[in-house]
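ok so heres the complex, two chains, lmk if somethin looks off
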Amino acid sequence: EAGVTQSPRYAVLQEGQAVSFWCDPISGHDTLYWYQQPRDQGPQLLVYFRDEAVIDNSQLPSDRFSAVRPKGTNSTLKIQSAKQGDTATYLCASSLWGASQNTLYFGAGTRLSVL
Amino acid sequence: GDSVTQTEGLVTLTEGLPVMLNCTYQTIYSNPFLFWYVQHLNESPRLLLKSFTDNKRTEHQGFHATLHKSSSSFHLQKSSAQLSDSALYYCALSDRNNYAQGLTFGLGTRVSVFP
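and the predicted structre for the whole thing:
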């Protein structure tokens, strides 16, 4: 069974540029999460979906960040006008809604550097 | 809001010695679900073990932890560290009554095991 797939693995930008990250969750997983992990810190939840619906995006900097999951499968996280403070690894994770095990499966992440 | 505290940022030890990583939490959840994730260098976080049962020892891959709701703790232990245990360890919290809402992570503890 394939795991969570993310691309690209790395991105280097100048401030002000835009970037998109893509995530393909584990087949059958209806819940998808985007986490931001600054260097030497724990992952911090940005947004999560159940199917195509956003359940919670309260931690997403809405003025520059956006996330979609139009068909309830793959998802895209986009940063408009990146800032140096956005430098971090962006992790996608998936799980089954309501599953008692509540286990999140993480992708390899996209490491973003904003210069 | 919810929070997870890991008091050690870095733990260094010699192979074969015991290791204990501290984790305490604060939450409004009446039914907290606690997790330990391990992240090896250049890899994504991977579930190590989890528990929502008070005072019951949970074991996996030589590690064990016991959730103590009375002290809001979920410390991770291993009796004999191996070189391959060198990694980042994250304690995380969720609500068992709301499985899908994602995890709140601590800052992490880096473990370095030397020969």
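quick notes: Chain A touches chain B at residues 4, 31, 33, 40-45, 48, 50, 55-56, 91, 95, 97-109 (CB under 8 Å). thats all i got rn
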